[in-house]
Design goal:
The complex is a heterodimer of chains A (351) and B (399). With 351 residues, chain A is α+β, with helices and mostly antiparallel strands. Chain A has seven helices and 18 strands. In chain A, a hairpin with a 2-residue loop joins strand 9 and strand 10. In chain A, helix 5 crosses helix 7. Classes of the chains: A alpha+beta (351), B mainly beta (399).
Chain lengths: 351, 399
């Protein structure tokens, strides 16, 4: 590895809430350590053959199916194109509550990009593609970073930081997660697991066709009951899709409950923000923080019904300080619209 | 507040060390070189077996998270078995310096965990933080500057915390909701509180069987600098031991010296909830659903300390006046003048504390067998301290 000179200005990412003093950390050089590169995955995204034609067009090849979620994870306003690869002759099995049961060989392909409206005319680009690959002994997570030419993406197991300037949002450092960081969120009882594609999230009409019916008719989804019996989660920013409570709970589930659920990595706090969590202490109502440290923001409870400004949940969603902010990973900007929704919900709760 | 300002000249090994941790085969040793290394992201060891991460010594190999931009922990170990972390220093993580979760077999040895600069509220919460783990050993470590607990073992079982030195933290050592714990041979000084043995509500498991012996707990009189809202914020400066709502606790052969407010306090979560002004336990209706108001809704949680036994400790306190910035200090000086107690129980009794014959239920016994000059008080905190007493015979029993 070449020697580099780093000068990192720590202005706490321009965050007014950060209490840390301005601090300059000078890092002189990158020192190379011996690394044993076992075979972890294909080096280039194109080697999988998921897309045909111009790679950046993300035109799905055979056995690759596009999908969308009702309420997605917020990732610094990145737009996402999602696909499932299901090997020829295999099927995913329907599950009522959990993520569909995908067959060995299936791959979830999630592309993160910004369009011209966000980055400026002619500057829209795909940043990264994350793969979740179902192998014999479980799931594997791999991050691929697109080159500037947008001709292919390359395996970067340590992730990558890239400075971006978004219209209306300013300049920030977008972080492609490392392989290890993937599992920091994609963990269920110690094993890697997908988060998004549950039946209630996929139960959505795209181009006049319900996605679950589409997968069923393509022969890659077994066990689908009558579509009227399939649960459906609210769309966080569509008032016609559910009540304020439904939409806020949908938002908290996809953005928080991958960790904050009884089988997730945040279970040590005792907080459960999943959609099936009871409306009580477990959901954070009058729940004192356990290991939050400065994350408490000087507040007593995770959620004080009726009082968003006294709720730690809101404080941490608003923060950009890495020691305070939630989620801990995958966000460098504040999701103003998401915060507004959850604020409105907390304010609506009866004390 | 005290300061720690070591001289540092940072280099980076971030990319290659992150890759090493991700690609490490089972049963391998990751050697950290000598030097001062700065990191922008958490280091993560995930799903590995039989790994040692070994530095050249806590004064030679320094891992600093001063420029941290993402992730809250410095080093995060998760879902592993048989991990040894030894011989390095770790500093200035945004959250906890080292967090180890869901791991069976974790040893911290000869690690220095610190926040640099002036000791302050903005420092991370825990210096060394094993949680939801089994077979935990923390030994020969030095921890300073944590805005919650220096060494904090949470929701774990079979734990040994021995021969560590902890100072300038809010809590020096805290065992929280742990089972089968030995806290032995540690020195805790100049923290707000020396050693805390806590059970908190609403968590995955509850604690029992904790023994603390041969510890040297002195001069824990530091201002409480925990961010508001955190449970340790209730610890009065000048506390040696504090036992909260835990069962089967034995504290013996310790030296507890010059902690100016209380040598050993034994309290219920009821007292903590009152101090924190938590809402009362009534269930109220909001719309169609009831809202569970507080810890009383956790039916697995027992908020009273029980089967706690202190004996053969050395207590002394050369301070005439307790810390007066907290309720207990004020209470003690008001009730006891210049002869404050060295051991106090809040005296809040569990509903089943007294048997029908009027004798204390052995399940809830609190016993003290110390030298005659060790003053013991029962505060009767549930009744505005009306029945407060320092009658020497009150807690005279064995367990």
């Amino acid at each position: 590895m070449t020697k580099k000179l780093f000068l990192i200005l720590l202005i706490a990412a321009g965050c007014s809430q950060a209490k840390k003093e301005k601090d300059v950390v000078i890092i002189e050089e990158e020192v190379s350590l011996p690394v044993n590169y076992e075979k972890v995955g294909k080096m280039k995204l194109s080697e999988y053959g998921f897309f045909r034609g111009n790679p950046a067009d993300l035109e799905p090849a055979a056995n690759v199916y596009p999908y969308d979620l009702n309420t997605p994870l917020f990732t610094d306003y990145a737009l996402k194109k999602r696909f499932i690869f299901i090997p020829e002759g295999s099927q995913a099995a329907y599950q009522e509550k959990e993520v569909l049961d995908f067959p060995v060989g299936a791959v979830l392909i999630k592309n993160f990009y910004y369009d011209d409206a966000q980055l400026g005319a002619g500057k829209g680009k795909i940043i990264e593609t994350r793969l979740l690959i179902r192998e014999d002994d479980g799931w594997k997570a791999l991050p691929y970073v697109w080159n500037d030419e947008q001709t292919d993406a390359f395996l970067e197991i340590t992730g990558k930081d890239e400075e971006l300037t978004l219209n209306g949002k300013g300049t920030f450092t977008y972080s492609v997660p490392s392989m290890a960081q993937c599992k920091s969120c994609h963990e269920r009882s110690g094993a890697i697991a997908p988060i998004g594609p549950t039946a209630r999230q996929l139960n959505k009409t795209v181009n006049d066709k319900n996605q679950l019916l589409m997968l069923h008719e393509a022969g890659v989804l077994s066990g689908l009951p009558d579509i009227s019996a399939v649960p459906k989660v609210a769309v966080w920013n569509d008032e016609n899709s559910g009540t304020l409570n439904d939409r806020a709970r949908a938002y908290l589930e996809i953005n928080c409950a991958h960790c904050h659920r009884p089988e997730g990595p945040g279970k040590n706090s005792g907080l459960d923000l999943s959609i099936c969590s009871p409306t009580d202490f477990t959901l954070g109502f009058y729940k004192a923080p356990v290991a939050a440290g400065a994350g408490s923001g000087g507040l007593q409870y995770d959620i004080v019904p009726g009082k968003p400004d006294e709720s730690i949940l809101i404080y941490r969603m608003q923060s950009l300080d890495p020691g305070v902010m939630m989620p801990e990973l995958g966000r460098k900007l504040r999701h103003d619209e998401g915060v507004a929704l959850v604020r409105e919900w907390v304010a609506s709760l009866t004390p | 507040m005290p300061e720690y300002n070591p001289e540092r000249h940072y280099k980076s090994i971030e990319k290659s060390l992150s890759a090493q941790l991700m690609l490490a085969g089972d049963s391998s040793v990751i050697e950290l070189p000598e030097g001062h290394f700065a990191f922008k992201n958490s280091l993560i060891l995930e799903g590995k077996n039989n790994i040692a991460i070994r530095g050249k010594g806590p004064d030679k190999t320094i891992l600093s998270f001063k420029p941290q931009e993402s992730g809250a922990e410095g080093l995060r170990v998760a879902n592993c078995t048989n991990i040894v972390l030894e011989n390095f220093a770790i500093e200035d993580a945004a959250g906890d310096n080292i967090k180890v979760t869901d791991t069976d077999g974790i040893t911290f040895r000869n690690i220095k965990s610190a926040w640099t600069g002036t000791v302050k509220e903005q420092n991370g919460a825990y210096g060394l933080y094993p949680v939801l783990s089994k077979r935990v050993v923390v030994e020969h470590c030095e921890v300073l500057g944590a805005s919650d607990a220096g060494i904090y073992v949470g929701q774990s079982e079979d734990v040994v915390i021995r021969n560590n030195v902890v100072y300038w933290n809010v809590a020096g050592i805290e065992s929280e909701n742990c089972e089968n714990v030995i806290i032995e041979g540690n020195e805790a000084y100049e923290n707000t509180g020396g050693i805390l043995i806590f059970d908190l509500p609403g968590l995955t498991r509850y604690g029992s069987n904790i023994k603390a012996f041969n510890n040297y707990i002195h001069d824990n009189n530091l201002k409480n600098f925990a961010p508001k809202g955190n449970i340790v914020g209730v610890v009065p400066p000048g506390t040696g031991f504090l036992v909260l709502a835990t069962e089967d606790v034995e504290i013996y052969d310790n030296r507890v010296i010059d902690n100016k407010t209380i040598g050993a306090g034994i309290v219920s979560y009821e007292l903590v909830a009152a101090m924190r002004q938590e809402p009362s336990g009534k269930q109220r209706q909001t719309g169609a659903q009831g809202v569970n108001r507080n810890y009383k809704m956790d039916t697995n949680y027992n908020p009273y300390p029980r089967r706690v036994y202190l004996h053969d400790n050395w207590f002394s306190n050369s301070h005439l006046i307790p810390d007066l910035g907290n309720e207990f200090g004020k209470l003690f000086i008001f009730k006891f003048g210049l002869k404050p107690p060295q051991i106090a129980w809040d005296g809040i009794k569990a509903p089943g504390y007294l048997l029908p014959d009027g004798q204390p239920n052995p399940e809830y016994k609190i016993c003290v067998r110390e030298k005659d000059d060790v003053k013991v008080a029962v505060l009767d905190a549930a009744n505005d301290f009306e029945g407060l007493s320092s009658d020497p015979g009150l807690l005279d029993c064995e367990l």
